[in-house]
């Protein structure tokens, strides 16, 4: 689908690779080296919205599986098209096995386990890779946490609470907590069962890539805050407040809250917080431990960007932040760069030739073709300038560029092709 | 107990700069907005990530302001996208004159900061600014503005609503319209509905009253939600899903704005030949031979490269047209904005605004 594969003419001519969009001195991001590294068990794909994170995560997952890793891809974005491209009618909260893998090594090139459910895999298949995919269902994930951490009666009280229902289903930000939570669960299950040795996670489609890192910490600081203590006091002590300091604080607080939200809503909120108290503690501990795991040497971050100003700026923030948090960065993927055939024919030369044809009123089609070429060279040059700026500010960050495809990915072949571009650069 | 609220009716003291303006005498009368959206006071601009929401929202603000109107452009996600778009330093939480529009129009900009908006909200409705400071110490501010983003969304939409309703002493609205650079399509219904969500938790009380009045405007003909898309499969699908989502939530969808449209660079017959692989290579070669191309480039190679580029272009044009057809039946006004070679700078923004006007957005 790239211009390399869609060549219609016979004559060969020099092609600019996507690498041409990356400055000479920048280190290459070795995708195959990353996927083959047996010490890497988690890859987090992050970046701002609309840069192709989800597709990149899926393409990495497929490539790793076909090279023998046992992979689970956790996506957040509910793109139906992507599910279909992996041959799944839908993605849900349970990992589903993707069929039709092609193994680069091994006895059977079609993959012996491709038509069997995950549970019935033959022994031979166990030695080769496989790919599971799932999509985060944040409400279901939240419900499961509640149910697994409290007795049935208490769990039901929480599930029925209007505050819980809003928090778990409607409020943005919950997605980040739940993505962290799910990653933690998958890791634990991978270590226990050995079903996966590589988890690739796509991050929520927030405008800011940093949200993914910040949300769990915010939760922690909130839960440690005095507000939670205040809210849980009256219900616990049946209206009797013990400490004087707390009492004074609560006086102001409940006065304000009653005024704003009304006494009945304040009561609902207190009930919610009280019944959620124990659960929140466990949740915070897990969110913190998942966060710490993101700093461990078996994790790598792949920052994804498009060759646009905003996306690269966001990528730069994120790269700096990862360094600050001592989280291991694999490198930057610049998606959808303009590929240019015959870069030797400069925009200026092409335009001059086009003008010559137009002035002499000759063959307008050829002059249009020349102008089309000039436009591509110019947009490639602009993209190159933007990537240059990123690289000169971050000279040690490995980079790989991937050429733009004319259409969306529809099947495993499409994902495979992106995987190839990622590996070749 | 803190002091009692002075009045049940909002007094529009949302921020220092605003309160000063509220006491200013009547502004000179301005001509009413004309065009496709004459009745609309709040334009909410959403779209899939990467489609250019901020660009379109900014161009829309300029287009609406053109001809002597006064428009407020608001952003709510703390990304300072407006400042970058207009090439000015980061915006404080204050309505600032940010650009002039052709024929005497003015664009103001505001980057809403959730914490400041919360303090303002307490001050405005409850006269409790000091209580706000106490709440901050308790960590309640975090709860309100980050942990429970529903409340954050309520503050953002509430602030937009306040700007829509604010009037000068003669009763003329301070702003003819407010353009809101909103969260992406996937979150837009949730964002706008946060108010009714919170309202349903509070069955009575002031927050209930406030949420009802915000929802009333959000669901009225005074509000339109425009979705920005690219002519690519996923953004178009998300737009169609988004329109459905708005309908289900009884939120008024406005226009679909196709952004970064690639204009065909070839005429129809050339496009067709390029697609079918029947461009006349011999003719292209002989035309190229008449030009003074550098000697080190072989005419045959150039021809082959140009033909492949044309085929690629024709394929993209066809894909865009297919996607455009999927939007045809959505039943909403569609505007098209071209891809600007060289990216969007301030000049490009005004060009986009002119195009929106030419397409009927405003007159």
Can you put this structure into words, describing what you see?
- The complex is a heterodimer of chains A (425) and B (363).
- Chain A has one domain: Rossmann fold (3-Layer(aba) Sandwich), CATH 3.40.50.300.
- Chain A is 53% helix and 11% strand.
- Chain A is built from 16 helices and eight strands.
- An eight-stranded mixed sheet of chain A has the order 3-4-2-5-1-6-7-8, with helices on both faces.
- In chain A, helix 13 (309-324) links the parallel strand 6 (299-305) and strand 7 (329-337).
- The longest helix of chain A is centred in the middle third of the chain and has 31 residues, at 263-293.
- In chain A, 49% of the residues are buried.
- Chain B has 363 residues and is of the alpha/beta class.
- Chain B folds into two domains: 16-262 and 339-358, Rossmann fold; 268-315, no CATH class.
- Chain B contains 14 helices and eight strands.
- Chain B has helices at residues 16-22, 53-65, 81-85, 114-126, 129-138, 140-147, 149-165, 185-201, 206-218, 233-248, 268-276, 281-289, 299-328, 346-358, and strands at residues 42-47, 70-75, 96-101, 105-111, 177-181, 223-229, 253-261, 334-338.
- The longest helix of chain B is centred in the last third of the chain and has 30 residues, at 299-328.
- Chain B is elongated.
- Classes of the chains: A alpha/beta (425), B alpha/beta (363).
Number of strands of chain B: 8
Major interchain interface with per-chain residue totals: A-B, 85 and 92 residues
Order of H and E elements of chain A: HEHEHEHEHHHHEHHHHEHEHHEH
Distance linking N and C termini of chain A = 16 Å
- Biggest sheet character of chain A: 8 strands, mixed
The share of residues in helices of chain A is: 40-55%
Spatial sequence of strands, sheet with the most strands of chain A: 3-4-2-5-1-6-7-8
CATH topology tier name of the largest domain in chain B: Rossmann fold
CATH-defined architecture of chain A: 3-Layer(aba) Sandwich
